[in-house]
Amino acid sequence: MDAVTAFEPFPSAEAQLRAAAPHALVATARRLLAERVGAREVTLLLADYGLNVLQPVSHLPHTSTPVPAHDGPAGSAFLTQKPVVEVLHESAGHLVHLPITVRGDRLGVLCVRLPAGTADPDTVLRLGDFATALGHEVAAAGRDTDLYLQARRTRRLTLAAEMQWQLLPGRGCAREEFVIGAHLEPAYAIGGDNFDWSTSADHLVLTVTDGMGQGIEASLLTSLAVGALRNARRADIGLADQACLADQAVYAQYGGKVYASTLLLHFDLATGTVHAVDAGSPQLFRQRDGRTERIELEAQLPLGMFEETLYVEQTFQVEPGDRLIAVSTGVHGTRSTAGDLFGEQALRQILGATRPAQPHETARAVVAGLIEHYGSRELVSDAAVVCLDWHGRRT
């Protein structure tokens, strides 16, 4: 039986993945790939919260040895988002590393060891489709089992970080008009920083929020602010009024003692017009034609600082090929142990050096540069970076 014939039952394979118990997806994938392509070994690797390693999903709480997320064959597949075929010694065959991404959110890598001579291009392509189907099921299974969330951890999350990661929409999103990549640090102890987005047929709404304080207090504040913004957004309320209602919710709870700085952006997918509300400290940069510039918005009051604050929208335009980068205070306001501010100059240098990279890697590189500047991964302030590449809508 040739490889093409072997893959004809894949629609039913996807159905079997959907029918599998949430905890049994890896075992089901092993069985299906052994039946259809003679796979001798199948391993699911999930990216850890810090995007440093790829963690094998095995029998928890014990996990197999992780592999680097940016080196080696599996790391290369994760980094480039392209299949990597590793040639083993003759009797061992080939090890195919397939990126697993769900609607632009990079989850990890599926590693499949095939008999020698069977890793032809058509088989690798179809294995890629299978990996995507498995990724969708892993994402859905997170509602019903902790297995895959546990497998991502190299150590225990703080309670505040647990709350924040559950609040996030993911770490990436991709459509014809745009690609988003985002990163947070300290990944295992994040408290008040958040990013959020929602897309429809006509628009994208993107927010970056920095809740005042640290730990549980910051996480609770940010959860309230993000929940209020989502509630207003889902009622089809305009951007400025979304900020007004979230401001009222935060003030009603805290009486102005604490507040949440927020940047709200509403993109018209057809025209590239962006409506913006700058309610606090997150900063926004744009890269266009080899230049990096800060988009100067009218600085308005953070959410919850005063009662019934009114907010005003501003507009600017994005063009195909533009890259936007939003950073929280924990990025542009962090100082090194010597007291040197990370600042705009260092940020511009990193953004310039990473312009050819994908948004995910640019966001990670900014945080990596911040950590190097600070001198430790244990940042005092949370750091959030969101990178968006704008392609525009084809006419």
How is the secondary structure organized here?
Blueprint: H1 3-7, H2 10-19, H3 25-37, E1 41-47, E2 53-56, E3 67-68, H4 72-80, E4 84-87, E5 94-102, E6 105-114, H5 121-141, H6 147-151, H7 159-167, E7 172-174, E8 178-185, E9 193-199, E10 203-211, H8 215-233, H9 239-254, E11 260-268, E12 273-279, E13 283-288, E14 291-294, E15 314-317, E16 323-327, H10 329-332, H11 343-353, H12 359-374, E17 383-390
Antiparallel strand pairs: 1-2, 1-6, 2-3, 4-5, 5-6, 7-8, 8-17, 9-10, 10-11, 11-12, 12-15, 13-14, 13-16, 16-17
Helix pairs in contact: 2-3, 2-5, 7-8, 8-9, 11-12
Task: Give an overview in words.
Helix 7 packs parallel to helix 8 and helix 11 (343-353) packs across helix 12. The model has no long low-confidence stretch (mean pLDDT 92). The strands form three sheets. Strands 3-2-1-6-5-4 form a six-stranded antiparallel β-sheet. It has helices at residues 3-7, 10-19, 25-37, 72-80, 121-141, 147-151, 159-167, 215-233, 239-254, 329-332, 343-353, 359-374; strands spanning 41-47, 53-56, 67-68, 84-87, 94-102, 105-114, 172-174, 178-185, 193-199, 203-211, 260-268, 273-279, 283-288, 291-294, 314-317, 323-327, 383-390. It starts with a helix and ends in a 5-residue tail after the last strand. With 395 residues, it is an alpha+beta fold. Pfam families: SpoIIE. Residues 175-390 form the PPM-type phosphatase domain. Its EC number is 3.1.3.16.
